[in-house]
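Note to self: the last two entries modelled the partners one at a time, which told us nothing about the interface. This time every component goes in together.
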Amino acid sequence: MTRWMLKSLLLEPLMLMIAIASAASAFLLIIMFEGIFAGESEQIVAYVRNVKADVWVMQRGVSNMHMATSYLPDWKVRQVQELQSVEAVDAILYLNTVVEAGEHRWFSYVVGLDVPAAYAGPWAMSVGRDQPAVGEVIVPEVFAHMAQLEIGSQLRITDQEFTIVGLSRETFSMANSVIFINKIDMEDIMSSFDISSFMLVKAAPGVTPDDLVETIEREIDNVHALTAHQFLINDKKMAMQMGTDTIALMTLIGGALAILLVAFTIYSQVARQRRELAVAKALGATNRALYASVVFQAIAITLASVILATLVAALLMPVLSTLIPAVTLRLTVASVSKIAVAGVFVAITASLMPARQIARLDPVSAFQSGG
Amino acid sequence: MKDNSVLQAHNVLKTFGSGHTEVRAVDDVSMTLEKGELVLIMGPSGSGKTTLLSILGGLLRPTAGQVYIDGTEISSMSESQLPMIRARSVGFIFQAFNLLNALTVEENIQFPAQLIRGGSQQASERAAQLIERLGLGHRRKALPRTLSGGEKQRVAIARALINSPPLILADEPTGNLDSVSGQEVLMILHDIARDEGKSIILVTHDPRVEDVADRILWLEDGALRDRKTEQHSWVHDPVCGMRVDEWAAEVATTHAGRRYVFCAQRCLERFEANPQAYTENPSAVIDSAGHMGVDSE
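The predicted structure of the combined assembly is written out below.
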């Protein structure tokens, strides 16, 4: 039965290719949604992932950076610096706010650096300086390109003008870019002085991040310390939560489209094979066996569609990332696995409609020309 | 049930519709088919032949009556039990061949074997035997669309035999074939009944089949009659030469003490206009006692 169904599919290669291509386009849509989500989720936490801290220290009750507010008095920074387990501390003052350049506006992480910052500043530069002086700003290269900015151009953060002195790489995201200014300017913007938001701490040689967390929390009052690894997990979780609903809706739409396309294909296939299915039924095939065969056809088409969509996505994503640098795309194993699971659901759901056709098939119709 | 009977039908009734629109497609049919017997079912279009065949093969449930295949009553079986009976006990041969287009000759023949548990294991060997026996050795890997009508029907016969069912039901197996291929298929079916002891019911309009049949049953308006027991049923119209069923003929006359039957009123009129012109052919006459001349069929 399985061989028959598979060979029946291959009997009309053009129809099969159209069916696979149609379903693949729906799966490609889902993969692209997932790719944008995965890419943007990665990019939102780019700062936390790339700076070279072992431990992050913040206000008690805060456990991530994305959309969070944390205040630490500078004297606590000095307390941490004096700990024997600590090699270095970079303190940043941080704000989520809108950056304006002409008609362009971006929601950004604005990081106030205590210059010279050893490792809290941009980790990859395209051009210019990575340490901003007062009145200066370092912006993402993509950001500058889209707003037609260059070194020396002006932009506005809240009500203050800044001059671009450096263009950084890997710091742009559609949702949240990373901008670097001097901590003194940030204190002016926030009208708050002698404070920091986060301490980025490096452990002394031989001290593990976990030990350092324990030491800081024991020695310094009212702070929360987390290893960089845990801090990244927390931040990513928060970022993912904020986009999950939208992506779930998009995936649902793409999935529904895939179900419709595969269902239509299988329904058409069953309609075309109606007479042969009736013959098989007359010869002794059970409804269950025929239905299993139709499900097999649906799974075969869906699997081929998922593979095709994945291959096209793998080829398309690098090209799209080059053509549209504002969009960060990632094809992850998790995304592909999710699509494969969705594919099985799609195949089974798409087979439900033809199942009714099969159950109602009259084997007597095999005697079509009888008297 | 008789020990040697493969099929028994008792008072089988099948109606469609209800009230004043009710149609009796099969009307109180009873019949028995012995092992190795080849029985024809003939009758006009719409007489219920296919409906009867479908009921006998477990494809259609009768409104009343019982059908037994190999001693098992199939008319009371559930829908889930019938497919196995069809796969194991009945071989179907269709007028339109009904081969599965995507499968090769060999795969088509083996198809019913895959529908029964453990059937696939011996199917290859049995299929190979059938392929050789039916002269399909050179077409083993061919797809149905490349086969001639005669080859397709031979594949269908092999497919019907793959599970060695005791009963073969053939619906107009020569209907789509030329005379040579049709004759060939008939001889194969005859040999299957004679050599393998298969019981065959053959629904047909083809008069050539009568030569190989053990019995002929006539179905009209859903009711069955045995015709082979009635002697000299076929004669030729003395005017046009057409074969006429003496039993069913309504146009007849007596001339010089002998009875003549005609296909139509027009032939009778021509005969009566000049009887001498037609009475020299003895094959066309039946004497007044109802006996045929020397060329009777």
